[in-house]
Amino acid sequence: MTTIIGAAPSAIDTHLRLLEEAIGVSLLERAPRGLRPAGVVLFPSAPG
Q1: What letter would DSSP give residue 36?
Q2: Residue range(s) defining the domain that contains residue 21
Q3: What does the CA dihedral 22, 24, 30, 33 come to, rounded to 10 degrees?
Q4: Which residues 6+ apart lie within 8 Å of 13 measured at CB?
Q5: Stated pTM of the model
Q6: Domain of life, per the record (predicted)?
Q7: Residue 4 lies in a domain
């Protein structure tokens, strides 16, 4: 799994947009900015 802690916010936003396009769901709407742990949003099925 890729570690994204410390990644530039712009890189995270880009990754989220790619995921949104892929799954057709707006992750930013489901988890507003500032309230979402990036790891949980990017890897919702990751154990622990």
Answers
A1: S
A2: 9-42
A3: 50
A4: none
A5: 0.32
A6: Bacteria
A7: no
